[in-house]
C-alpha cells in the first residue's frame, strides 16, 4: 500500500540503502553515480568514439544508446561497491560502532546514528546457523563473542533512545544464537533483573524487560514446531517465575505510591508493568504454559485492578495508565481466543470492567488506542459462545448508545489526519490498514453482536441512523458529522455482494441511496463538507455492484466533478470509485452449455461520452499539491484509457501529459505504485489508439523515444523493465520494414551485456519476441540468429529464466522458416536435452513438450523426429515415452492444450515412427494421454474464464522499491495461434483417427482396446458419436 514518504526516525536507518538510494529522496538524480560519460549519438554507424555518430532519422528524433555504453556504465559501480560491501564485516567495525553508541563522551545524535547502524549491521551480518553465505559477508566470530559478552551491560547504561536500538540489536543476534549458542543470555538477564529489583532501580528493570520483550517476541505469530516449544520451555523455566515476581512487586509499588506520586515518578512504574504484560503475551502465544495456568489468579487479579482503578487526574492525563490497560486488554483477548475454557471463570468480571472503562469519561490522550483494544476484546466475546452476556435489550442499547455511536463520530484527530496526512487517512479508511481505527472497531463490535442478534441490532441501528439523519436535517451546517456517521453505519452493516457472514439490513437501500447519497453528489455546493463528500464517495465504491448500470452512468458526470475537488481525499475517493466501477463484472450464463463466465459490465460505448471529461479532470488533479504522484488518480486514468475509445487531440494531449510526468518522476522515482500505473497508462493509450489509428505510431515514437533513451542512458534501473516493454509495444505496432532506430535497438538487444540484469530479462524477451515477429527473415544476416541462440542457452541454463528462454524459442519457431532455423535446430535440441538431464521438473518438461509440438505443427512431424534423432539414434522415441506421454495430460492453457493435442494427433496419424507395427504400445499410450488431456479442457476453460479480467493489473502491485520485473498488462500482445484453421482439437483427433483407420481397417481397434484406459475408451467413443466419426 501507499505510504507517505517518512522522515528518518531512530528506528529507521539509512544504512541498508546504497548511497544513491539514500540521497535520492532529497537530491535531484544524477545521470550516473560516477563522472558522466558523454552519451553516444547513434547506433547506425560503426563506433567512432564518443564524438562519432549521426543524429538519427527524422521520424525518430535522437539516437538510442550503444550496448557497450550500457556495459561501461554498469560495471564500475559493481567493482567499487565491493569494498563498501566488505567494510562492515571488517574485524572490529561492529565493536567500534558499539563503542561509539555507548560512549557518554560523544554527541547524542552521533551515538544514536551509531546504534542504528549497529542494529542494522547485526540484522544483516550476524552469522546464521548452517550459514551458506561467504564468510566475508558475516561478522567475525571474535567480534560476535565480544558483543555477546558486553551488550547486556551496555544496554543498562545508555539513554532510552539508544537503549531501544541496542535491545533490537540484541534480539537480532539472539534470533540466530539463542538459546543454543548463547546460553548465558537469559540467566544474565534474570540475575541483573534480581539486582535491579532489590535495589529498587525501576529504570534498570525497564531496560532489562525491554530486552526481554525483544527476545521473546519471536514466539508471536510463528508456526508451531517441536524446536520452538523446546526453546519456549527453556525460556519459561528460566524466566516465568522472575517475571511474576517483578510484576507483583511493581504492582504493589504502584498501589502504595499512586495517590501521592507525580505523573513523572509513576511513568516508569506503569512502563514496567506494561512491559511485563507484553512479555506475558509473548510467552502465552504458543500455548497456555503450566506455570501461567497455576498462577492465573495472581495475574488476573492485578489485571482487573489496573482496569478498575482510577488514578489522580494528572496521572490519567499523562497517558501511562491507559497504555498499561491497552496491554492488559490485549492479554485478555489472547486468553479469550485461545484459552476460553481456562479463562471462563474470570470472563464476566472482565467484561464488566472493560465495559465500564469504555463508558468512563477521561482526559487521557491515549484513550483512543485503549478503546480500540477494549472494543476488540468485547467483540471477541460477542462472537463467542458467551454472547449472552450482551443479549439483553438494555445491554445492547447501552453498547450502541455508549460504546458504538460515540466512537463512530468523527473526532478532531480524524479531521487533522484528513487535512494533514491524506495518504494515511485513505489507507486507514478505505483500504483497511493493519491499524485498527475506533470507527472500524466499533462497527466490528456491532457486526459481532448481529451474528447472534441480527433483528435486535437492525432495529437499534436503524433507529440510530434515522436519529442522526434527523439531526442533520435540523442543522445541516453544524450537524454534517451526524450524517457522516449514519452513512458509515450503513456501509459497515449492510449486506454487500460477496460478503461473508451476511449483512444486517438497517435501511431500505434504494430509498437511502436516493434520499441521502444522490443529493450530496448533485448538490450545487459540492466543494463543501469534504469529509462528508468523501464518505459518500466511499459508499458508492462499497456498493458499486448494486447500483444499476443506467443509474451509475447517469451519476458519472456528477462524480467526475469531484476529481477536481481541492481535497486530496475527495478526489482520490472519486478516482477509486470510477476505477472500481469500470472493472465491475456480471455473471453471465453461456447459452447452450452449463457454464458461467464473468463479463465486464461497462464497455467503451458506455463511457466514451464521459471519457474526455474524466481524463481532463484527472490530468488537472495530478497537478494539485500533494497529488503529483497520487496512485489512485493514475490508476483511474490507466483504467479509463484502457477501456474508452479516444482519438484526435485527446490522444495528443494525454500522451504529452503522461510523458511530462514520466520525465519528472525520472528525477526521483520514489512511489512504485504510481510509477507502475503511469507506465500502464502509457501502454493503454499506445495500445488502444495505436491499433485504431496506425498513423499515431510516429507521434508515440517521437514523444517517447527521448524519455526512454534517458532512462537507459542515465541508468534509471527501476524503469528499465518498463521501458523495454514499451519498446516492444511500439515494435509490435510499427509496420515493416522497421526504421533504422529500431534496428539499432535490435543490435543493442542482441548484445550479451544487455542481458546482465536478471530483473530485465522477461521484458527483454518481450522486446525480442516483438522483433522476431516483425523481421524473421533478417535473422540470417549479421550473425543475428547465432547471437539469439547464445542468449537462449544462457537463459535456459537457469531455472529462474527458463520460462523466458522457452517464450523466446516458441516465438522463434512460430515466425522463422525451416530454411533459416534448420542449420541450428540440432544446437537447440542439444541445449534442451542437456538441461533435461538435470532439470526434470514438471514445468520444464511441459515447456519442452510445447516447443516440440510447435516444431511438429510448423515444420511437420517428420522434421521433429529426424532432427531429434540426429542428436542420437531413437532419441525421439525415448523422449516421447519418458516425458511427452506422461506429461501431456499436465499441460495447461487453452492455446497450449490445443497445440499439444493437435501435435500429438499428427504424430499418431502421420509419423512413420509411431505407425510402425513395433510401436503399437507407444501409439496406444500416446492416444490415451491425448484423450485424457482433451477430457478436461472444458473445466480448464471455465476456470480460466473466471480468472481472467481487466483487473489483473491489481495483482502486479509492488510492495517496495527493488528493481524487479512487473508485467504491463496493457502492453501485452495476444498470443499467436498457429492453428487458427483448427477450431476444435477434439474433432480434429477423431476425424484424423477415422481417416487413418479407414486406410488399415481392423488394425487400430485392438491397440486401443489393449493400451487405452477404459474411461478414456468411453470418452473416445462419445467423441466419435458427437462428431459422427468411426474408428474401424
Automatic annotation (TrEMBL):
Gene Ontology process terms (BP): protein export from nucleus; protein import into nucleus
GO MF term list: nuclear export signal receptor activity; small GTPase binding
Keywords linked to the UniProt accession: Cytoplasm, Nucleus, Protein transport, Transport
Cellular compartment(s): Cytoplasm; Nucleus
Stretches with biased composition (Low complexity): 1-15
Residue ranges, annotated region (Disordered): 1-91
Domain of life from the UniProt record: Eukaryota
Residue ranges, compositional bias (Basic residues): 72-87
Importin N-terminal domain mapped to chain residues: 91-157
GO cellular component, one term: nuclear envelope
Pfam families given in the database record: CAS_CSE1, Cse1, IBN_N
Keyword Transport (UniProt): yes
Family: Belongs to the XPO2/CSE1 family.
Full protein name: Importin N-terminal domain-containing protein
Organism, as annotated: Aegilops tauschii subsp. strangulata (Goatgrass)
